[in-house]
Amino acid sequence: MNWIADRLFNASGRIGRLTFLGYFAASLPFTMVASFQGAAPIVRLLCAIASLLCTMAPGVRRLHDMNVAGTFILVAFIPLINLVLLCSLLLIPGTRGPNRFGERKGQS
């Protein structure tokens, strides 16, 4: 459980595009249930919260990989601009070597 909490709630450090894609893919089922109108409101709320948990801290770490401050993740709450942010997180490569947020795990 500690390993999962560290991955979902720790916003320090850096992750690459592929790792972020994994977190994003894990959030998709929760997002689909949260947007399903036939689901009970409490289920939709819990799924929306789970979807946010799966993407916020990893999104901050992905921004760190691009040498951008993590507070920029708040742009994700602005409609249409959030799509541009998502495309940026998935397509723009991170900084080579260490940056002000440290080294990416898995790099020497």
Q: What features would you describe in this structure?
A:
The chain is globular, with a radius of gyration of 15 Å. It is mainly alpha-helical and 108 residues long. Helices cover 58% and strands 0% of the residues. Helix 2 (17-35) runs antiparallel to helix 3. The protein has one domain (2-91). It has helices at residues 2-9, 17-35, 41-65, 81-91. The longest helix is centred in the middle third of the chain and has 25 residues, at 41-65. The protein is built from 4 helices and no strands. The mean pLDDT is 88.
Order of helices and strands: HHHH
The coarse silhouette is globular
Largest sheet: none
| Rg estimate, integer Å | 15 Å
Number of domains: 1
Q: Can you tell me the residue ranges where pLDDT is under 50 for at least 5 consecutive residues?
A: none
Count all strands and give the number: 0
Helix segment tally = 4
Structural class: mainly alpha
Helix residue percentage: 55-70%
Strand content: under 5%
What average pLDDT do the residues reach? 88
Q: What is the strand and helix layout of this fold?
A:
Elements: H1 2-9, H2 17-35, H3 41-65, H4 81-91
Helix pairs in contact: 2-3
Descriptors:
mainly alpha, single chain, 108 residues
Summarize the structure.
The chain has helices at residues 2-9, 17-35, 41-65, 81-91. It has 108 residues and is mostly helical. It is globular.
